[in-house]
Amino acid sequence: MNKTVVLFTATFPYGTGESFLESEIKYYKDFSKIIIITVSATSKDKETKRALPLDNIEVLSLNGDPLKRSKIISFVLKTITCAEFWKDLIQAINSKGVKGIIDLCKFTCIGEERVNQLKKLIKDKKASICSDNAVFYSYWMHLPLYVCLRTFGTKNITVTRCHGFDIYEYRNGGYIPYRKYLLSNVDKIACVSEDGKNYLENKYPYTKNKLAISRLGILDNGEEYRSNNHSFRIVSCSRVVALKRINYIIEALSLLDNRDIEWFHIGDGPLLEEMKDFAHDKLANTGFKYSFLGEMKNSDVIELYRKEYFDCFINVSTTEGVPVSVMEAMSFGIPILATDVGGTSEIVKDGSNGILLKPDCSPKQISEKIESLIDLSKDNEIRKYRKASRILWNQMCNADVNYKSFVSMLYGLIGVNNG
To answer: How far apart are CA 54 and CA 197, in angstroms?
Structure first.
């Protein structure tokens, strides 16, 4: 039987996001046809297209640019004729009041416009998607899944991954549009963390038999336990936004007595210039060496870790799913200092491969834990943490193991409901 996977993404293979798919898609080789549908790729995203590893991949890309005013009016009218809209309206009002109504209207307007685009694109391209021999897979339990269900209906075999923002309502002000509609109309919900699975199972008991843990993964990039004869080197990697608390890292470094430290931050974001100014005020005259490396392609981040030695990876985010950046660092045996939020504690074991901080930790407490790791490095005890990081990566985050298992599940679902 020829089997097809129809993958709904936000922007992949365009732009730099959804980097895990770069590895995962290599394991789709047993599918006779692979169709990728991007629902949010903007013109800027499309300036960068990543190479795809298989020849049998077709990309259908929707226009993810902001809607023009004329289209907004048209799809607002279509929104209020959507039955699912009225079903979700009470939940929106109860959860967020007027803001909930606005969120629901915006989501529906964008979603229905994307559905309209996709139906027209399929018709114009005469794209053949045989649902009997296909599994429909959304990388996010959010807009891509909505577009999938609204375009192809609810009777197909449909799987969704869910990560962080698309699981926890509190990360969205208490409300996620079409929660019940999305949860009720998928066959399998693949959570990237146990924490996420438990959250959904407790809050939505009817999903219990659909839920599974399917972790993301990092490929094996080799390991090195080189001795470091230089300064204590810290690396962080994240968007420079408020919830990542880069200011806490800077403040913590400024409190350290030990000045033989280097800090490197990978990532861009709206607060980058503000954080550069803050770092200059706090660290410029202290003897610390620091560098903001800006946005880097995932392959370049991996190459940096391969070439450079780092004593510690730090992440003090207020919320997470299972942080990609932590898994990447672990694959190279780098010890982790991270806040105990989301699924972080599933891959960072306090006192084994790193140190966990309380979610509401202060810069002073962060600095104290950095000092603890510095002391361990002086006694070479840090080697134990490095080995443990590598072992835990292999057990929990090995892409070869995790993606083979996930893709096998996708492949096996085809024909189950239709045979």
So the answer is: 32
Note the pLDDT tens digit of each residue in 161-211. 999 999 999 999 999 999 999 999 999 999 999 999 999 999 999 999 999
Give the number of other CB atoms < 10 A from CB of residue 364.
Answer: 11
DSSP secondary structure code for residue 358 in this structure? P
371/356 Cα distance (integer angstroms): 14
Radius of gyration of the chain measured on its C-alpha atoms: 23
CB 343 within 8 A of CB 413: no
For residue 333, pLDDT over 70 is answered with yes
pTM of the model: 0.86
Bridge-based pairing of strands 33-38 and 354-357 is unpaired
Question: What phi, psi does 371 have (nearest 5°)?
Answer: -60, -40
Nearest residue to 160 (alpha-carbon basis) of 180, 192, 190, 181: 190
Q: Is 42 helix (H, G, I), strand (E, B) or coil?
A: coil
User: Token pair for residue 329?
Assistant: 């660092």
Strands across the sheet containing 261-266? 289-294, 261-266, 232-237, 312-315, 336-339, 354-357
